[in-house]
Amino acid sequence: MGRLSGNLGVAEIIFMVIAAAAPLTVISGNVPLAITQGNGALAWTGFVAAAMVLLLFSVGFVAMTAYMTEAGAFFTYIRAGLGARCGRAGAFLALLTYTSIQLGVYGFFGWSMDDAVRQWGGPALPWWLYAAGVLVAVAVMGYRHIDLSSRVLGVALVLEIGVVVVMNAAIMWHPMPVAPMADAGQAAGPFAVALLFAITGFIGFEATAIFRDEARDPQHTIPRATYGAVIIIGLFYAISCWCVIHAWGADSITGITRGFLAHGQNIVLETAGRYAGRVMQQAMQVLLLTSLFACLLSFHNIIARYQLALGRDGIMPAFLARTHDRHASPHVASVVQTGTACVLLCIAALSGEDPLVDIFGSMAGISTIGIVVLMILTSVAVVAFFARRRDLSRGRPFSAVVIPCVAAVALCAVLCVILVNFTRITGLAARTSLMLAVLPFAVTGLGFCVGRTAITD
């Protein structure tokens, strides 16, 4: 069966994780929604709060990392702390979570590419043609060695972060008459909704542990990459959201953003054009596409490695655990993942639904519930793991027990907020939203109840 290999350091893994979070995609998509449906000019506080919750979670996650010898992230942690059946349930849920958000991003890419081509004077083509094209590119990259993917993602990430930094700097350089804090009493909606869109923007951050086999020094690299990814992502999102609000003025940001959305325009691209010039706006539009590609490639790598880990443990067919002799990549799992994405993309195309509002919105809703449930299970698993091994937790009760308990409670509160506001997130009818909200729990139950496997239950 072979193991993966690589020489990824802290910076490379952070690149992979932040690329999966797709910062430019989040800033262009989640930020406007957080402003209009969330708490208006204070929407940036949702990203700060999300980062704080994830930092709490990361304390226990990192504490347990030192005693984990396999890649697999949430699923292996849950299994080690709560047993094989709970681990299998977590694995099924993780596959659903990442497969859902990947399908949503394929829809987002198709929509964005079609919009860009039409703006550049090209023909209006079906969104799924562009999605199918990028699927082929992702398949080729995902089949090869992980170092190639990390270099491609690193270049794309530097460019997209750079263009946002230029926009932020241009906004800060121009003094504005109204600061975002002045609009504190005119929030457009609940803080909870802004928090929801912020949490969605962090999906993929735990991928630091998935690349354990390919890390240069897992014992030190994984913890540093985890904290680094959460802090960098949180600060980048919060500052960028604040700058967009600052650019248009706190008193009017909510109405202006709603107006742009109503006319199918991207307020972030318009902000870049207003403060950094037309060339920068066009560059940001191109980099939005590369951001989406980087996101898709990262999710492809994550899903393939989940499948490899499940193949190793007998939860899924053993052939998924095979690795390529030359590329040292999970080539079989990569091909299977490509096939799955192709089938789902065909179903989405035949459904006739809007690729952005319907497909991306609903898939983001499923994945948000999934990632929060996974983090709750992982926090509980950390506590259970150290409770059975008191010799390991001696001298550090806070990182091994107290903080993971606090994180679990905080995440349960976030989950309640998500479920209460789920219809607002997806934008779908109440009955359809309910069915989508139940799906992650149903898949988790299925994973727990399936028959015995090679793992001892």
Automatic annotation (TrEMBL):
The chain crosses the membrane at residues 12-35, 41-68, 89-113, 125-143, 155-175, 187-205, 226-248, 283-303, 332-351, 363-386, 398-422, 434-455. GO terms for biological process: transmembrane transport. InterPro entries: AA-permease/SLC12A_dom (IPR004841), APC_superfamily (IPR050367). It is found in: Membrane. Residues 13-423 form the Amino acid permease/ SLC12A domain. It comes from the Bacteria. Keywords: Membrane, Transmembrane, Transmembrane helix. It is a multi-pass membrane protein. Its main location: membrane. The keyword Transmembrane applies. Pfam families: AA_permease. This is Amino acid transporter.
